[in-house]
Design a protein that fits this description.
There is one protein chain. With 368 residues, this protein is an alpha/beta fold. It contains 13 helices and 18 strands. The chain has a seven-stranded mixed β-sheet, sandwiched between helices. The longest helix is centred in the middle third of the chain and has 40 residues. It is globular. It starts with a strand and ends with a helix. The chain binds 5-S-methyl-1-O-phosphono-5-thio-D-ribulose (MRU). 5-S-methyl-1-O-phosphono-5-thio-D-ribulose binds next to helix 2 and strand 11.
């Protein structure tokens, strides 16, 4: 995707082995890239949400393993790196997927070969993510085209999205936003309702920023506005991402997604979830019981950061000093509320059979 008109990815390795990322905690006010030099830097980047979004967390973890191997390629370090990175964030399963993939690959190798192989595999994981997201864009475009046809190809298509499941959440293209970028290329007139996504405002700060950079018409709305817009026929379809999808099609995504799915269901608005296959956790079926939900710092609820008229960025308090706050970061939308799962292999029903129709090779894993 483009930044100031120039194509960029969200993570890349430098010739000297450092790994560059965009510091997403500073957007939309500042665009700053940061170099990760150590395992500790990578773990910090994931935990502090300099990088975030399920697929990008996976890519950053893969590079975190490579940075660790560059320092010390022993078995002890391999185990320590995996444990350190796994402890950063609990919900997005891409993290575990990438770490397990790196361990499986590196463990049998002699230590002298591990660093080079780790960098090569991390780069491949990034390239695979780009290819997968491009394919998700193609598959999801079908859903947008259907909505456009239903409207008699008149007016515009209004898509509602929650959180940031765009380019910034992946290596390139995004998941939920990939179909939107694909539709933009084909000339279908569309407009995106961007949920602000309290408390960290990934919609207002990140989705709005990247849509603006790509020239996609959009409007930021308060999180509570979506239901009203749906009641008034102002949303043609919803597309969101996910941090973990169970083998039966339940989806965990940013807190507030479930309420949007309920409103969409009540108003017969199609509700799609876009996901790359590493986001599917084939080992679990019941999303509500089995997906760990990250609890984050309550200060993300009680305080907010923004730009002051003098251009500086400041944090201000929103609540009374002694009012307690809670901050569950994700919720689970049951499969029954999901119209379809958009994957790199096509769109399927949000169900075990739907997923297995696209990923038949997982039949054994999904039986567990
Ligand atoms: O807490 P975050 O910003 O990492 O949460 C991100 C989301 O919930 C995204 O919607 C999800 O990871 C899908 S990203 C392609």
């Amino acid at each position: 995707m483009n930044v100031a008109g120039k194509p960029m990815r969200t993570i890349w390795a430098e010739a000297d082995g450092g790994v560059d990322i965009i510091d997403q905690t500073l957007l939309p006010h500042e665009f700053v890239t940061v170099t990760l030099a150590t395992l500790a830097d990578a773990a910090h980047a994931i935990k502090s949400m300099q990088v975030r979004g399920a697929p990008l967390i996976g890519a950053a973890a893969a590079y975190g393993m490579a940075l660790a191997m560059r320092d010390d390629a022993s078995d002890a370090m391999l185990a320590r790196a995996a444990d350190t990175l796994l402890a950063t964030r609990p919900t997005a399963v891409n993290l575990r997927w990438a770490i397990e993939e790196m361990r499986r690959l590196l463990s049998p190798l002699p230590p002298a070969q591990r660093a080079a192989r780790a960098y090569a595999r991390a780069a491949e994981i990034c390239d695979e993510d780009v290819a997968i997201n491009r394919a998700i864009g193609e598959a999801g475009f079908g859903a947008i085209e259907t909505a456009w046809r239903k409207k008699g190809r008149r007016g515009r298509i209004d898509v509602l999205t929650h959180c940031n499941a765009g380019w910034l959440a992946t290596v390139d293209w995004g998941t939920a936003l990939a179909p939107i970028y694909r539709a933009q290329e084909t000339g279908i007139p569309l407009h995106v309702w961007v949920d602000e996504t309290r408390p960290r405002n990934q919609g207002a700060s990140l989705t709005a920023w990247e849509l603006r950079e790509q020239g996609v018409p959009h409007t930021v709305i308060a999180d509570n506005a979506g239901g009203h817009l749906m009641q008034h026929g102002k949303v043609d379809l919803c597309i969101v991402g996910t941090d973990r999808t169970t083998a039966s099609g339940d989806v965990a995504n940013k807190i507030g997604t479930y309420l949007k799915a309920l409103a969409a269901y009540d108003n017969k608005v199609p509700f799609y979830v876009a996901l790359p296959s590493p986001t599917i956790d084939w080992t679990i079926s019941d999303g509500m019981r089995e997906i760990p939900i990250e609890e984050r710092d309550p200060r993300e609820v009680t305080e907010i950061a923004g730009r002051l008229p003098d251009g500086s960025v400041a944090r201000v308090r929103l609540t009374p000093e002694d009012s307690p706050a809670a901050n569950p970061a994700f919720d689970v939308t049951p499969a029954r509320l999901v119209t379809g799962l958009i994957t790199e292999r096509g769109i399927c029903a949000a169900s075990r059979e739907g997923l297995l129709s696209l990923f038949p090779e997982r039949r054994e894993a999904a039986r567990a």
